[in-house]
Amino acid sequence: MQIKKVLATFLASLLFLTTVYAQTANCTLTIRGRVIDSDTQLPLSGVTIRVSPGEYQVISDGHGYFRLPQLCKGTPYVLTATSIGFDSLSIRLPLDQDEIVTIALHHGHIHLHDVDVVGHQQTIATTNRVTTTSREQVAQVQGKTLADIFSTLPGVSMLQTGTTIAKPVINGMHSNRILILNNGIRQEGQQWGSEHAPEIDPFIAKDFKLIKGAEGVRYGADAIGGVIITFPPPLPIDPHLSGELNAIYQTNGRGGVISGMLQSGVNGISGLAWRVQGTAKRSGNVRTADYHLGNTGVAEYNASAAVRYNHTSSAFEAYYSRFQTSLGIFTGAHVGTIADIQARVEAGEPFERYPFTYAINAPRQRVTHDLGKLKWHRDHAGGGSLDIQYGIQRNHRQEYDIRRAGRDALPMLDMVLTTQTLDAAYQTPLYGKWRTQAGTNLTLQVNNNIPGTLNTPLIPNYDSFTAGAFAIQRFIENNHEWELGIRYDFRAFDAAGFDRNQNLYGGQRDFHNVSGSFGGIWRPNAAWQLRSNIGLAWRAPNANELYSNGLHHGAALYEIGDAQLESEHGYKWVISPSYVQGRVSVDLDLYAQYVQHYIYAQPSPGEFIQTIRGIFPVFRYRQTDATFFGADLSVTYELPYSLDYQLNASLIRARDSRNDVFLPYIPADRLNHRVRWQIPLMNKVASDTYVTLEHRWVFEQKRYEPDSDYAPPPPAYHLFALYAGSKLAVGSHQLDVGISLNNAFNTAYREYMNRFRYYSHNLGREVGIRLSYSF
Predict the structure, then answer these.
(1) Measuring CA to CA, which residue among 717, 714, 724, 769 is closest to residue 745?
(2) Strand order in 207-211's β-sheet?
(3) Which residues are within 8 A (CB) of 347 and not within 5 positions of it... i.e. 6 or more apart?
(4) Which candidate, 403, 324, 365, 405, places its Cα nearest to that of 552?
(5) Is the dihedral of CA 656, 659, 660, 665 positive or negative?
(6) Which range is the signal sequence, renumbered to this chain (predicted)?
(7) Nearest to 473 by CA among 482, 464, 461
(8) CA distance 162 to 194
(9) Which residue in 426, 425, 61 sits closest to 231, CA to CA?
């Protein structure tokens, strides 16, 4: 019945769109153009282009291009381009036919220590919807994890391991089904683990984007569930020193974060710029509504540096970052006997009461992730561009457990994963209505277990080589666009290790597959837009899914793999209508996905394995065919008196279609809505002052198999939060002040997507204070 209602609504929307289109058929002209820096002749991204009459505006993309469709013949339009650090420029066009213009902006002559930025950003041209988190939403969760930032978006939740580890879940997909681009480089750590969080410092980036479609063509294997993209801000060319300093305090865990950034152009060397950044984070045992969780502290120290040189039509960039964290694993998840673990699961909370401390003891993790990048970009005459990029990453993961005979200083798991990537992509100029993008990707990975742990490694040593090539053809018309893409990837995987009985295991596996996508965008007028995309993506099984047979200390689980697993093949169809008119904005994503040979870790109820470190539940990797259906809704409405209301809602239905049962660990339905008041202060000291009240309602997950887990899903819960902030003028600089109150009523609740829900509750009340000083 629900599917019939959705289809009826969708067909009614299409009928309405057709009527509107017929009424606006006379306004079919388009202005296309490019914005460049008048001095360097390089493209400018992020420039606002307004057209009047109509007050319609667009933003130039990463190559400086913009497009203004649905304009009326014979109307004298005025285009105005504005960007920080540049003089505004207006152009008058008596429109009689489609026009192509180039806008050259000049640097402003008045500087109050502002920062001019120029350069190329990676442009995202896709028929799937690209969702961007707002700066305000990012500020409200600063100091937390990357998963917290994206969980503010509809269709995104978190897979947690206790309170210290979280990773994003997109439409029910996580880990190696989500591809993360960190400053243009595929993030490659040991992301196969449910408790292996992305090794990215959120303070490095300013823009966080999400694509929920199957983007296997553009980004390669593993993009079955979606793509997360983090962008640092463009480097400045102005020689004035600028930067920012962030300070955050959070009461729950008594956590503090300090992050600073400095950047500048180089005086006397036009086009040369640099940036350095660093973050330090420390917190202790966090608290639920009623008790502390033992050994849940975090210590994190990160740094990054970048340099860029722009010369006429070329740009060279070098980048390095280091992420280093040490975090505790909740002690109550490591228990001694079968009777003890069963009693704890039945109780649902720890028997012990822990004091507050900053100490991080075993069990704990220590992870260091180094990333280096070299990139060359060139803009060709006529609008083509070439990008060549080399990246190298070194991920060193150590996991410690409680050991006998004073061996706690020795890690139980000690792995180093080294990844090298080489990417090349060329985008042609716009030939009439056609644009082509083609490229190739090479990846070499080497994973080694470091000897000396006195423990059998969870996964073997392995080498992996991947080669891929792709081509994407776009057709751009006045009110619609179409895209067709195809890609081929080949992966050679060679593993070797010794099990606990000193038997050699592993072997060589070859995987290869074709990915494809076809989609379109239809814009009947300035208010309505319809996107639709069908994508095929795939991924090869990971080393842990194939060969693990041991205790995964961080997750407190005993994992058993299957060496005969095949590649996953995902087919995803997304339909995304959107409406923006006046005070109302509506975005809807309807999706259906079929995953052949879906790999998942299934809890094995009643099965426990005893080791010298205790008793642990068993999870076995299995393979089946799976179907996913869902909808994500986002609605914004501007109310009177400077109020606005936003609603985000998502639901997902996932089944093992081969056995006709529910899949485990699928997010429950959830609804998040907020009311925001923009306080109209009329003075020169404070600006952008706001107060936001938020309510989150997570439903009980009732779609599960009763005998497939150690405990049934927890009941539904409601959380309330309050945010407030203001920007204060400090001389010619700015101080951004924010305060947050999360879980305002100190609700005791459990999240189904938390692997430690068997033993404990989630976080209790937390007050946060944030200061950000820009100069």
Answers:
(1) 717
(2) 130-132, 207-211, 226-231, 178-182, 185-186
(3) none
(4) 365
(5) negative
(6) 1-22
(7) 482
(8) 11
(9) 61
Strands (E), 380-433: 385-400, 413-427
Name all contacts of 691-695 with Cβ < 8 Å and 24+ positions apart.
691/722, 691/723, 691/724, 692/140, 692/722, 692/723, 692/724, 693/720, 693/721, 693/722, 694/720, 694/721, 694/722, 694/723, 695/719, 695/720, 695/721
Query: For residue 617, with 0-12 CB atoms within 10 Å meaning exposed, 13-18 middle and 19 or more buried, which class applies?
Result: buried
Integer Cα distance of 109 and 580 in angstroms = 37
Residue 194's alpha-carbon distances to 163, 555, 645, in angstroms, are 13, 7, 35
Q: Do residues 680 and 657 lie in contact, with contact meaning Cβ atoms separated by under 8 Å?
A: no
Which whole number is the average pLDDT over 457-476? Answer: 92
Classify 28-105 by CATH class: mainly beta
Rg (CA), the chain: 26
Does the pLDDT of residue 774 top 80, yes or no?
yes
Which sign, positive or negative, has the C-alpha torsion 168, 159, 421, 596? Answer: negative
Q: Which of 345, 241, 336, 357 is nearest to 293 (CA)?
A: 357
Amino acid at 652: I
Q: Are the CB atoms for 688 and 734 separated by under 8 Å?
A: no
Provide the 10 A C-beta neighbour count for residue 405.
6
Query: What DSSP state is assigned to residue 660?
Result: T
Instruction: Give the Cα-Cα-Cα angle 184, 540, 508 (nearest 5 degrees).
Output: 115
With 0-12 CB in 10 A as exposed, 13-18 as middle and 19+ as buried, what is 146?
A: buried
494 and 462 Cβ atoms separated by less than 8 Å: yes
CA nearest to 497, candidates 548, 556, 555: 548
Local structure of residue 746 (DSSP, 8 states):
-
Structure tokens at 372: 């280096």
Structure tokens at 775: 């100069």
Are 761 and 288 contacting, i.e. CB atoms less than 8 angstroms apart?
Answer: yes
What is the per-residue pLDDT across 685-725, written as a single tens digit (0 to 9) for each? 888 899 999 999 999 999 988 877 778 899 999 999 999 99
pLDDT (tens digit per residue) in 340-397 = 777 777 777 888 889 999 999 888 899 999 999 999 999 887 778 899 999 999 999 9
Return the structure tokens found at 692.
């936001």
Candidates 769, 711, 760, 738; CA nearest to 285 is 760
Dihedral (CA of 288, 291, 294, 295) sign: positive
Q: What is the bridge-based pairing of β-strands 185-186 and 207-211?
A: unpaired
- The C-alpha atoms of residue 136 and residue 740 are separated, in whole angstroms, by 12
pLDDT tens-place string over residues 112-147: 334 444 445 555 677 888 888 887 888 888 888 888
Query: In angstroms, rounded to a whole number, what is the distance separating the alpha carbons of residues 310 and 377?
Result: 9
- Angle, vertex CA 176, rays to CA 170 and CA 179, nearest 5: 65
What does the pLDDT look like over 555-574, one tens digit per residue? 567 788 888 999 999 999 99
CATH topology of domain 130-774: Maltoporin; Chain A (2.40.170)
- DSSP tag of 566: P
Neighbours of 430 (CB within 10 A): 19
CA–CA dist 763, 163 (Å, integer)? 7
Alpha carbon separation from 669 to 205, 393, 763 (Å, rounded): 30, 37, 20
Q: Where are the domains of the chain?
A: 28-105, 130-774
Residue 389 CA, chain-centre distance (Å), reads: 21
Which helix (H) or strand (E) element contains residue 19?
A: helix 2-23
- Which residues on neighbouring strands pair with residue 733, listed in sequence order? 730
Count the residues in the chain. Answer: 775
